[in-house]
Write a structure and sequence with these properties.
- By secondary structure, the chain is of the alpha+beta class.
- It contains 6 helices and 11 strands.
- It folds into 2 domains: 106 residues, no CATH class; 135 residues, no CATH class.
- 22% of the residues are buried.
- It comes from Roseateles albus.
C-alpha cells in the first residue's frame, strides 16, 4: 500500500500531485522548493501501488494544461495551478466510487510527529537550508541578468548595419550608447526593459551576502540609451565578486567582437550625463 497525495502550497498558489509511502517525509523535502504546505486543505488516498500509479498517471496527463510556470524545483513536472484541484478531486471521487480497492479520498494530511530537538539546533539547520536556497537563487538571477545582456549583444552583432550604437572602454567602465530604432524593433525594447529590472545584483553566500548595481541605464528624449557597466570591484576576494568578474569577462569578450561604432551610426551618438 502507498499514498497518492495532492498537496496545497498557498505561498506559490499551486498543488503538487505525487505518491509516497511517507507523506510527511515527502513534504519535508518539497518545502525547500515550494514553501509551507497547507495540511488541512491537502488530500490523500491510501491504495495499492498499481491503483495509485493509474490515478497519478491520469492526473498528470489530464491536468497538463494547468501546469504551473516553473522549470525547476523538486517535482516541478507534477506541479499545477490551484485551478486544477477541483478537476483532480472530481476524477478521484469518480474512481473511488467504482473501485472496491480504494476506500475514499481524505481531506487533511495528518501532522507529522516530530521529535523534539533543541530549539537552537533546529533553528540552526532551518537557517542553513534557507541560506543554501538563497545562494542558488542568487546565482540563477545573475545568470538570467547576463543572459539578457548577451542576447542584446548578439542582436547587435547580427544587425550592426541597421542599428546605431557606439561604445568605449576605460579601466573601470564600459560606456555603451544605443540609439533606439523605430517601433518595429520591439525585441530590442523588451531586452532593454528586462535589463532595467535586473540592474541591481544581490549575491548570497553561506557566510553572508553582497549587493551592488551591475550597471546604470539612462535615456534621453531623443531615444538614446546609455548603459554604463562597472568592470572592477574593490573586493575581488569576495566569492560573489569572483562570479561577477567571470560573467563580466565573458560578456566583454562578446562586446569586443562589435566594432566600437556601428555602420548605422553615421553621426556620433551623444554621451548622456
Amino acid at each position: 500500500m502507498t499514498n497518492l497525495y495532492i498537496l496545497l502550497f498557498p505561498q506559490k498558489g499551486i498543488i503538487k500531485v505525487g505518491k509516497a509511502n511517507d507523506i510527511a517525509n515527502r513534504i519535508a523535502a518539497l518545502r525547500l522548493s515550494w514553501g509551507r504546505v497547507d495540511y488541512d486543505a491537502s488530500y490523500y488516498v491510501l491504495a495499492s501501488e498499481d491503483v495509485v500509479f493509474k490515478i497519478e498517471s491520469w492526473l498528470k496527463f489530464s491536468l497538463s494544461k494547468y501546469a504551473a510556470p516553473f522549470r525547476e524545483g523538486d517535482g516541478w513536472t507534477e506541479v499545477f495551478t490551484v485551478n486544477a484541484l477541483e478537476i483532480a478531486l472530481r476524477y478521484i471521487d469518480l474512481y473511488c466510487s467504482s473501485a472496491a480497492e480504494v476506500l475514499e479520498i481524505r481531506r487533511g494530511i495528518p501532522l507529522p510527529l516530530i521529535k523534539s530537538p533543541t530549539p537552537r539546533r533546529c533553528n540552526k539547520y532551518a537557517k542553513l537550508a534557507r541560506k543554501a536556497n538563497s545562494v542558488t537563487q542568487s546565482v540563477l538571477q545573475i545568470s538570467e541578468t547576463f543572459s539578457w545582456l548577451n542576447r542584446l549583444l548578439i542582436i547587435l552583432l547580427r544587425r550592426q548595419a541597421s542599428i546605431a550604437y557606439s561604445y568605449n572602454i576605460d579601466e573601470r567602465f564600459v560606456y555603451f550608447r544605443l540609439s533606439m530604432p523605430d517601433k518595429s524593433w520591439c525585441q530590442i525594447k523588451s531586452l532593454i526593459s528586462a535589463l532595467h529590472r535586473y540592474r541591481s545584483i544581490r549575491v548570497e553566500t553561506i557566510d553572508g551576502c553582497m549587493q551592488r548595481n551591475l550597471y546604470l541605464i539612462s535615456n534621453s528624449c531623443d531615444n538614446v540609451i546609455k548603459l554604463e557597466i562597472e568592470l572592477t570591484s574593490s573586493n575581488d576576494e569576495n566569492p560573489g565578486e569572483k562570479l561577477l568578474s567571470y560573467m563580466l569577462h565573458e560578456s566583454l569578450v562578446l562586446l569586443k567582437k562589435l566594432p566600437p561604432r556601428s555602420a548605422a551610426a553615421t553621426s556620433p551618438i551623444p554621451i548622456l550625463d
